[in-house]
Amino acid sequence: MKVAFLYNSTRIIGGGEIGFTELIRRALEVPDIDPLVLVPGPGEVSARLDKLGVVYRLFSLPGLRGAGVRHWPPITRRLAALMRAEECRVIHANGARCMLYAGAAGRLAGIPVLWHVRVLERDRRLDHVRSLLARRIVCNSRAVAATLKPYLTASRKTTVIYNGVDQAPFRTARPANLHAEFGIPGERRIVLVAALLVEWKGQRDVVEALALLPKGVRRAVHVVFAGRELTPGQPFTTELRQLARRNEVDGHISWAGHRNDLPAVMRGADLLLLPSHGEPFGRVIAEAWAAGLPVAATGSGGPAEIVEHGETGWLFREKSPSAVAASISTLLRQPTLLKRLAENGQKRAEDFTLEKHAEALFRCYRDLARTPHDDDSDQPG
Q1: Which of 7, 73, 104, 37 is nearest to 376 (CA)?
Q2: Distances (CA, A) of 185 to 111, 181, 215, 353
Q3: Please, which residues bridge with residue 38 across strands?
Q4: Would you identify the CATH topology of the domain 2-164+354-370?
Q5: pLDDT digits (tens, 9 = 90+) for 257-301
Q6: 62, 134, 191, 280, 298 from 277: Cα distances, Å
Q7: What's the rounded Cα separation, in Å, for the pair 225 and 314?
Q8: Pick from 290, 230, 229: nearest CA to 264
Q9: Strand ranges (DSSP E) for 140-187?
Q10: Contact residues for 228 (Cβ-Cβ < 8 A; gap 6+)
Q11: pLDDT grade, residue 372 (50/70/90)?
Q12: Burial 171-183 (b: 16+ CB within 10 A, else e)
């Protein structure tokens, strides 16, 4: 069964791109799935596929805003012709833009399309079109699935499949010596914030939380921000650094940038903090669990679904520096609690393996390939 995998970005922006490339690698190991991988151009995604030994083709999917919409009809026809020529049985569209191309091409070619939704933000007009074109919609959390309900007349199209992580590197990596690397005093506990440096990831709350900590607690805390800027030189990063200086906590912060050795970094930290404002899933939580790193995260979206407060992690109020500060203070003062969260988290990580994630998606492919192609109705049945 040939399955076409489509993505519309050349960059590794976050966990969505990493997860998609790992899924394709896993598909290569399954006897009944033959992947046809299309990426829009050379870049970080294609380089990662090269590293994984995945053969792919370049197929550009231009933006559809403004004048760009004129590209949609001819590219859709080309894509449909390619899908027919390759005898594809299923198309997996990983993203919003490529779903518009894939959905229309699938209709032309008579091939079912799976739309993989990994974000909470919705486009009311275009998401209605995407929902109509998709034969199956896979969401990475119930929170994401709930955002699509207004666009569907029946829920049977939608399936929740949580993200999976290749856990071996996180369980076996040699811990990074972050104290030595960043000159952090040995008595300080390291709080890791591993996320893209953007407003909605909540790093501002962490900086403000440091200023709210009692001095005795603050002396024992050091935050390491590990993550790339979405756009190099963006104002948000400058604002964060300025905020840290104004609050006189810059001496308790290190900026690690993008890390290719995240498993080692996690194993060298004491606590993972995920302060996002609206987190669709929280892949980094599963990674931290596998690494044996206790987790504290905002109690909404994906984290609220997968973390059991006080057992597998610690949840706090979203958009609240005081709640972040209270969580850091509580957890770092209670080593027994931290140890329990880490141990329970490692067990919980087994529910989010790459193998389980991939097999759930492969079952979707097989089901779609067996379904008659004219069964596209979004009506209850």
Answers
A1: 104
A2: 59, 11, 16, 35
A3: 6, 57
A4: Rossmann fold (3.40.50)
A5: 999 999 999 999 999 999 999 999 999 999 999 999 999 999 999
A6: 29, 28, 19, 10, 8
A7: 19
A8: 290
A9: 158-160
A10: 196, 197, 257, 258
A11: low
A12: eebeebebeeeee
DSSP 214: -
DSSP string, 273-321: EE--SS-SS-HHHHHHHHHT--EEEESSHHHHHH--BTTTBEEE-TT-H
For residue range 121-162, list pLDDT tens digits in order.
998 889 999 999 999 999 999 999 999 988 876 568 999 999
Token readout for 330 is: 């509580």
From 350, 346, 310, select the one nearest 331 (Cα to Cα): 310
**Residues 90-132: pLDDT tens digits?**
999 998 999 999 999 999 999 999 999 999 999 888 999 999 9
Can you give the residue ranges of every domain in the chain?
2-164+354-370, 168-351
Pairing of strands 56-58, 34-39: parallel
pLDDT above 90: residue 378: no
- Distance between CA 115 and CA 112 in Å, rounded? 10
So what's the pLDDT on residue 154? 56
Is 0.85 surpassed by the pTM of this model?
yes
Q: What is the largest CA-CA distance in the chain?
A: 68
With tokens 């998401």, the residue in question is 127
Q: Which amino acid is at 231?
A: T
Q: How far is CA 242 from CA 197, 239, 250, 277, 288, in A?
A: 15, 5, 9, 21, 29
Q: Is the pLDDT of residue 14 over 90?
A: no
Place of tokens 């498993």: 263
CATH level 3 topology of 168-351: Rossmann fold (3.40.50)
Asked if the model's pLDDT at residue 198 lies above 80, the reply is yes
Q: Do domains 2-164+354-370 and 168-351 have the same CATH topology?
A: yes
Specify the residue for token string 């894509």.
Answer: 79
Per-residue CA distances from 186 to 67, 235, 264 (Å): 57, 32, 18
